[in-house]
Amino acid sequence: MIKIRPVAAPSLLRFIKLEQVCTRPCHHAVAPNEYTDVPKYPPIVDMSRRAKKKRLKTAWHDKITKLPTVEQKLMELNLPKYYGYWSGHLIDVCPKLLGLNFIQYATRTHVVNGLPEEYYSDVKNEAERLTTAVTDKVEHLIHLNYNCPLSRRSFGPGRASERHSTQNFLLGLHRLMASTVDSTVQHIKESVVDMQPRVEAFWILGGLPPDEMLRKTRKNYEPSKELENDLIDRTMQGVSTPRLGVRVTDGLPEVVSRDDPLATSAFVPDNKLDPRAFGFWPGEKKEHSQLWLHSREFITKFVEEYVTELTYPLVQQSAITDGQRWNFSVYQLNTCTLHSDLATNNPHNNILWLGEEQVLFENGVKGLNAEVLTALISMYLKKGIERDNPTPHLGSYKHLADHPASEEYREMFQSHLHDLFSGRGRHFMKPEMYLWEKIYKKDFNTRFFEARRRFFENHYKQKDPGQRRLDEYSPIYIPKAKRKDRRVKYKPMLDSEELYKYH
């Protein structure tokens, strides 16, 4: 045994016995066998630039599909763009000249003239019976809203007065219809009514030719020369504001089968022009549309997640009206994935049944059209069907409220999502190149003495603002008075899978 005499001064070197430290023998697991009976080769993948981009896109789509809640899917869709996507807008109040063919192509919709009569055959007799009982009340409602001014707003400008009368009439008509059919059907009694909701649709449309600027950029960049004329994807945003919406628990039954020739091989116009030439929250139990009443023309009813294909068709009823003239329609959504080449090479297409324009009444409540009331009551009476697994791409918990993360993380995530979908701009606007900068810095470098800090100037932190992600930000500092743990100085970062996590 080695003995060392202690000294008063601190020693620079001490000796200890190695046996006292390593008392356990070293060991490791048995090495696995390197040889197998059947050879295993790595998969052979295409390493071209086009194939790599396709694999990245497919992996992102699979990630979105596997996320368990609606809110997480919505957040993941918005993560790639901090300042939002540059989208082509289709707005119902701004119809484009000769834009019908493009809208049909952008939504892959086949239009059928006339409503499907056999679809309402089971409720037609009941609708005709209720029509005779409600006719007098409808005449009184028309006289009240169009012949008797109720407020000073009715004496305003012609267009504003008409909108005000139409809104009041549609609300009163819905109350009358709901109270009439409420004793017959249960789903209307339990329905939820939305007044002027903001209905928005977002999807990626593929199969569009590149613009001239993108074509030149690809041509002048060596790795992308072969992609010069490749078709591109454009993000599309559809906006509509119906006067009134009725939501129920169960979705409507399909009009035709998803394998019907009308849903697989119907004619859809091929209009590949660049689009630049032309609402309720997740968690609601009443998530299916029963009926939409519009006071003006609408662009589209194409609303779904664009990376996950439907497993069964969705059906929606609509009525376009100004109170006097009515157009009824039924829309069946069979496909919603239109990115890449699926805009043209898609085994399914959507169908719109559009009825002819009908007049409910003439001036002064003359000649009340009972057929319009029968068609409207039939839409109220049509009952949805309950499906075994209506949300196969969601987890056992459909919404964020049941997520296993902590309550604090769920509240922060929900608040962040509400801010995104509120329609307000970012606190800091997206950086842009001003005209004087393009002249004096980009085209003619006359200010070379200034420090290079802008995003279009070459410096070590240069980055395109369009490539900034939503989860790329500095961690938020937590004041000392609000810290639950003194060692934790910053909040966790946003994450679509775990809601929030520390990097």
UniProtKB/TrEMBL annotation:
Any Pfam family hit: PDCD9
Cellular component per GO, a single term: mitochondrial large ribosomal subunit
Gene Ontology molecular functions: structural constituent of ribosome
Keywords: Mitochondrion, Ribonucleoprotein, Ribosomal protein
Location of the protein in the cell: Mitochondrion
GO biological processes: translation
Listed InterPro entries: Ribosomal_mL37/mL65, Ribosomal_mL65
Protein name per its UniProtKB record: 28S ribosomal protein S30-like
Upper classification of the organism: Eukaryota, Metazoa, Ecdysozoa, Arthropoda, Crustacea
Principal localisation: mitochondrion
